[in-house]
Amino acid sequence: MGSWKLPILLLFGIGISGLGDYVYLIAINLLILKMTHSAAAVAGLWIIGPIIAILTNFWSGGFIDRGNKRKILIITDFVRAISVAIIPLLSSIWSIYLMLIIISLAKAFFTPASTTYITKLIPSQQRKRFNSINSLVRSGAFIVGPSIAGALFLFSSVDIAIYINAFSFAFSACILFLMPNLDEKLKISDSQKTRTYKILLNDWKDVIGAYKKQAFVFLVYSLYLGTIIFTFAMDAQEVVFTQKVIGLSETEFSLLVSITGIGYLLGSIFVSFMSHHLSIKQLIGIGIMLMSAGYIIYSLSHHFTTAVIGFTILGIFNAFSSTGFTTFYQNNIPIEMMGRISSILGVFQNAAQVIFLLFIGFLGDIFSLRSIIVILSIFNFFIALIITFLIFKPEKNLYFMEPSEKKESL
């Protein structure tokens, strides 16, 4: 249990922060809608994050790799806490957008830094179990968060919900204060400080070099990011598709979302208990195939029942695939370059999401929404098949072994 003391503490901080995130997500949408009565203004909330990530991630990775990850996490958590706490005091929509830009900027540093810090903190033999429990914590926040938000809106106000999110970020920062400093020996030389453009150029060269050395890892993970982009596009049309095409009521849609969360929770519980018996390859293969099958069932649904079946399947097996791919990434990407690699992958992922959403909007004027969702789900399933074919090649077994197993096989 002693070896799990720090991971449990970190998971506790992640859980509280995640809970606040889901409360805030609903609250900020309602606040903007209340202030502007504009759907376009609300849509702007979803565009800010990816755009800031694109503008930030192409250079932030080198700063993260050379910097103190724990300090970066603490500072960005406090920046988000203060920025969120200021929002209820603002009366202008543009000033709120400015705070959201600052929050997105902090998140652009926090996300890759946390990936690297977690990989360094968690021993390789514990990563699969940690990632499965992390999925469990996040799914719990997904289910409980909206319920807390609803209760807060009923008995208090949107402002209180936003302040709770600010508290969750501050609490997360306090938890990180208790975590060990894993980068005490890292120092930035004077030449690195003065030749920023050369460092940036070298960072991109290093990432390209890493890509060439680990071509298979990047291929599999890039295909996985491709499925995320496809599912993101389908999820963005979820409300319209379920209500306008399938014909569900708002109550049925809310129930459908809750069922998805419960499915993810059940999948996470199963994986957390069975992580020692399931290989990384099995988690990825089973998870990605059945999750994509769930999306196909959903895309072909004409009734509430079939939509529930599809959402339940994709919810359960999303937990499998996310645990498998996260562990695969942590075990094969060099820790000393993880910040740069994660950030640069984030540039392409966010750019693709923005372009893809605009493209889907254009196609919506030509084809029916059902046709678009069906085509997306089929392409998603096709990518899942390619991933499954690649990972089960016998000559690629080494990439899916635990680090201790790799040492024994060499």
UniProtKB/TrEMBL annotation:
Membrane topology, from the record: Multi-pass membrane protein
A cellular component annotation (GO) from this entry: plasma membrane
Localization annotation: Cell membrane
Gene Ontology molecular functions: transmembrane transporter activity
Name of the molecule in the record: Permease
Membrane-spanning intervals of the chain: 7-33, 39-60, 136-154, 160-179, 215-233, 253-271, 283-301, 307-329, 341-363, 369-392
Species of provenance: Heyndrickxia shackletonii
The keyword Cell membrane appears for this protein: yes
Keywords annotated in UniProt: Cell membrane, Membrane, Transmembrane, Transmembrane helix, Transport
Major facilitator superfamily (MFS) profile domain boundaries: 6-396
